[in-house]
Amino acid sequence: MNKQQYLQELESALRAKKVMDIEDILGEYAQHFTLKMTDGFSEEEIANKLEKPSAIAEQFSESERPGASKKGGGKAVLAIGLGFADLFIGLGFVLLFGWVIVVSALAVSAFALGGCLVLGTNIAGLIPAMPYLSALILGVSSLALGVLSSVGTIDLWLYMAQWIRAYVRWTKNTMGGGMYPPLSKIPQIGSKLKRVLRNTAMISLAVFGILFVAAFISLMVYTGFKPFWHELSWFVG
After folding, report:
1. Contact status, residue 107 vs residue 153, Cβ threshold 8 Å
2. For residues 97-122, b (16+ Cβ closer than 10 Å) or e, as one string?
3. Closest by alpha carbon to 219, among 132, 104, 160, 95?
4. Three-class SS string for the chain?
């Protein structure tokens, strides 16, 4: 069964059970197919791993029946438990968002430092003195670090957004009996974008490492292989 056949059967089953919000439900499952296909799964494989359309329609039908939410107060207890879980999970998301801010700040700082070194600009005398060749090499290294940090920021943001969506879906399924397809914990992005991000990270990491060492060596050569931080008075007030 391919995607079109599965969605058609699901629509027929939902209409037979007189389920509300059919278009929204179909949209959720259509999106599930799309996301899984970006991971390399075929339509048939995805359909085989999902519940039968008739079973899904039955679950939605039961959830809409009068009194379905009044089973011994079970849902009320479950909602309270999930509320406490939300406090801890929410704190984790806040901490993760803090990391996004930290890595993005590193990217901005690395770009700013790299630009100043390459252009020979020393704002407020914050950058220690060094020959321009060493500053140029170190500046390009810093720009590469900025690119690497930018990729890290994008990755962290994608993971955080995906984890939030997956947690919201899990909460919805827990409260509603698991009717919607679970979401992956891994960001669902196109294979082309994955390759671009991965290659960019690898190249920028290599450039940063090689040029950072090259700048260190150039400073050592410039000062006659003496501790350049002393020779150039970097730590003299």
Report:
1. yes
2. eeebeebbebbeebbebbebbbeeee
3. 132
4. CCHHHHHHHHHHHHHHCCCCCHHHHHHHHHHHHHHHHHCCCCHHHHHHHCCCHHHHHHHHHHHCCCCCCCCCCHHHHHHHHHHHHHHHHHHHHHHHHHHHHHHHHHHHHHHHHHHHHHHCCCHHHCCCCCCHHHHHHHHHHHHHHHHHHHHHHHHHHHHHHHHHHHHHHHHHHHHHCCCCCCCCCCCCCCHHHHHHHHHHHHHHHHHHHHHHHHHHHHHHHHCCCCCHHHHCCCCCC
Cα–Cα distances (Å) from 136 to 46, 144, 180, in that order, read 52, 12, 55
Residue pLDDT, tens place only, 162-180: 899 888 888 877 876 657 7
pTM: 0.74
Q: How far apart are CA 172 and CA 186, in angstroms?
A: 19
If one counts every other C-beta atom within 10 angstroms of the C-beta of residue 207, the result is 17
On the question of pLDDT at 237 being above 80, the answer is: no
Dist. CA 231–CA 197, nearest whole Å? 40
Place of tokens 């940090």: 149
Binning pLDDT at 50, 70 and 90, where does residue 150 land? very high
Burial of 164 per CB tally in 10 Å (0-12, 13-18, 19+): middle
